[in-house]
Amino acid sequence: MFVTITGVDDTVVSMKGRIANLSAHGLSLILPGKVPSGITVNVEWGEYHVQGQLIYCQPYGSEYRVGLQVEDPIYEPTLAGKNEKASNRPHPKIQSK
To answer: Span 2-96: which CATH code?
Structure first.
């Protein structure tokens, strides 16, 4: 799944990438360039977007793997691969455009 990240703290950061992994507390992304850890970014894909802090950026072949930690858990079952019980929970940080 392809995403666009845009820096909130650092407006120079803006690039396209892809989701490697999605969990209730964050995302792992593959990006074409290095980004600074500790900044807050918006991540958009399809009709969804989340905001979180980049907690690591590591080389991954010719690209970089970054970890994004979100403040509130992601409970969208179709995105996080959760079961049907998760659909009754709130979706605090995933917002539709």
So the answer is: 2.40.10.220
